[in-house]
Design brief:
The chain contains four helices and twelve strands. By secondary structure, it is an alpha+beta fold. It folds into two domains: 162 residues, tt1808, chain A; 47 residues. The strands form three sheets. Strands 1-4-6-7-8-9 form a six-stranded mixed β-sheet, with helices on both faces. Strands 3-2-5 form a three-stranded mixed β-sheet. Strands 10-11-12 form a three-stranded antiparallel β-sheet. Strand 10 and strand 11 form a beta hairpin. The relative contact order is 0.11.
């Protein structure tokens, strides 16, 4: 009796899930919020410019459930450690890592989402620090507030006597400066520059170095001339 063979049909390929790059919403509530976001993004990128395992991102769709592109959040600014610095179009927490710190530039119209929905989600995801800043001082009192994960719950970060907030995850102070939230170097206690400000400083330092080099060269030429004049005078005296 001949053998019978069952024909096994290949399983259909699982369609690749597409993760959209935008939700169609503006970057910030107002121009003031956008400026605050851009300053902080650039300042933190400047601060971590030499780090090979820290990514600083902004206004990026962050997906936090694998194989589900219907749930996401869009942090204003976030910092993730132990990840690559390559640029992404979207952020996937299961592949790219959970941010260590997330900033939200909050407003009256986003307050319920920022202080309730997002806070609960970030707490659940294991974000180490969550920092809120209200550029227009519309409702948040004080204007700058932060939360640190202790166990599996957020606890309020106490402000310094001068109103600064210290981020243990970043190793930086955060300081209110009008409608901006400044990142402050703990050693010099001066605000970090934006990338544009850093370039301006570098250009000024280069110009200063060039001027010093030109002055040094002029001084050297003057010394050589004086030595030559002294030798000439000696020759005349000896000749006499």
């Amino acid at each position: 009796m001949g053998q019978t063979f069952e024909i096994v049909k290949p399983l259909p390929a699982t369609p690749e899930i597409h993760y959209p790059e935008t939700d169609g919403q503006p970057m910030g509530e107002t121009a003031y919020h956008i400026l605050a976001i851009m300053y902080l993004l650039n300042a933190l990128r400047y601060y971590f410019r030499a780090a090979t395992d820290v990514y600083v991102g902004s206004n990026m769709l962050m997906y936090y459930e694998k194989d589900d592109n219907s749930v996401f959040v869009v942090p204003d600014v976030f910092v993730t450690k132990n990840t690559s610095t390559e640029e992404r179009r979207v952020w996937k927490t299961w592949a790219d890592g959970v941010p260590a710190v997330i900033f939200e530039m909050t407003s009256r119209s986003t307050r319920l989402q920022d202080i309730a929905t997002k806070r609960g989600l970030y707490e659940l995801l294991g974000v180490r620090e969550y920092i809120l800043f209200d550029p227009l001082e519309e409702y948040l009192e004080p204007q700058l507030q932060g939360f640190r994960l202790v166990g599996d719950e957020f606890h309020r970060i106490a402000l310094e006597p001068n109103g600064d907030l210290f981020s243990a995850e970043l190793g930086l102070f955060l300081r209110r400066d009008g409608k901006l939230l400044r990142a402050v170097d703990p050693t010099s206690l001066t605000p970090l520059p934006t990338l544009e400000e850093a370039m301006e400083r570098a250009e000024q330092e280069q110009q200063h170095a060039q001027a010093e080099a030109e002055r040094a060269n002029t001084a050297e030429q003057q010394v050589l001339q004086l030595r030559a004049e002294i030798e000439r005078l000696r020759g005349e005296i000896q000749g006499d």
